[in-house]
Amino acid sequence: MKNIIFLSVIIGATLVSGCSKSNNSSTAPNHSATADTTKDDISGHDDTNHSSNTFAIQNIPISTHQFGEFPFFNLPAGLITTNPPIQRKYDIVYFPINGVMTPIEGRVWKSHISLEKPENGDWSLPYFLKSYDDAVTAVGGKKIFDGKITDQEYKRYHDQAPYLGEDGSIGYADQDIRVYIIRRPDGDDIYLQLTGDTASGRVNILQEKPFKQTITLLQSEEIQQQLEDTGKAILYINFDSNKATLKPEGMVSIQEIREVLDKDPQLKLEIQGYTDDIGSAEHNQMLSQARAEAVKNELVRANISSDRLKATGFGQTKPIADNQTEQGKAKNRRVELVKLNAD
């Protein structure tokens, strides 16, 4: 059952009610803005007198409005998306909260907005901003930031936001940015940020949702089958972040590889390490080499002859997925086992 909330004719934005549920939210690991900054304790910007206060998520009232399909909001009347909107089921987008670019993860909709019929009039930035301001506040949303980020802050974070430059991106130095939050009962909070100039605007909408891992551990039978079919097997072995130290679940993968080698005493493998493109190419090359060697060393400790193993790191040079997304980065952080020709 759906009802429609009619806002003023000037706003021209509607909300279609429905039902929206998702898992509890979480902030993105290894992408925090500062060592001690979290979403639960970030200074915000008051939308009335612009005085600094403390933004704490628990102090934001929960909205009880029912929302329809993502991205929830229609465009204001007379405006269109300049290009097809960018939509991702999972991404990490940075939002400025008191000038600190803070990573939030979840479902994303981004677009560049312009006039539908320029011949009928000029672009109005106040119309664009007020349309969203009234629409969001009407359903219990609250503005938590209204200002600019500094050059220093942009330089600090922009390498962590590889999406910058694509259509609808927000987060450049000296942009006037407004950020809103709609707090939801199930924790799937909605973040919306806007920016605009004398010609057009941009909108980012994100509904919080934690990353769902879809990569599963290969069993020894699957590894063996892949080696027989294609000459290589792709594994996702868990290491400590940015290190070559195997996690306990990573040791499970080692045991699966050992079983494959035990079943075929003539089998020789090259262990190839790969990374995503976060950080410098030189660092990623060294990290991938260290991780490949860590796998080899553990297999040697498990009584596999070192003569049957070769460790090689390839760094970020051979991606198999798009490094612009978190899912793609996860697929690129891999270990490949490649059959070596018998001597």
Could you characterize the architecture of this molecule?
This protein is α+β, with helices and mostly antiparallel strands and 343 residues long. The chain has two domains: 4-208, no CATH class; 220-339, OmpA-like domain (60s Ribosomal Protein L30, Chain: A), CATH 3.30.1330.60. It has six helices and 15 strands. Strands 5, 6, 7, 8, 9, 10 and 11 form a seven-stranded antiparallel sheet that branches. A hairpin with a 6-residue loop joins strand 3 and strand 4. Helix 3 (220-230) packs across helix 4 (248-263). Mean pLDDT is 84; it is low at 1-52.
Structural descriptors:
4-stranded mixed beta sheet; disordered N terminus; 2 domains; 15 strands; 22% helix; 27% strand; 343 residues; single chain; 60s Ribosomal Protein L30, Chain: A
Summed up:
The protein contains 6 helices and 15 strands. It is an alpha+beta fold and 343 residues long. It has 2 domains: 4-208, no CATH class; 220-339, OmpA-like domain (60s Ribosomal Protein L30, Chain: A), CATH 3.30.1330.
Order of helices and strands: EEEEEEEHEHEEEHEHEHEHE
Low-confidence parts:
1-52
Summing up helix and strand content along with how strands pair, one would put the structural category as alpha+beta
Gyration radius, in Å: 25 Å
- The overall pLDDT, averaged over residues, is 84
Q: What is the number of helical segments per DSSP (H or I, 4+ residues)?
A: 6
Terminal Cα span: 70 Å
Largest sheet, strands/sense/barrel? 7 strands, antiparallel
Bin the helical content: 10-25%
Number of strands: 15
What is the approximate shape?
A: elongated
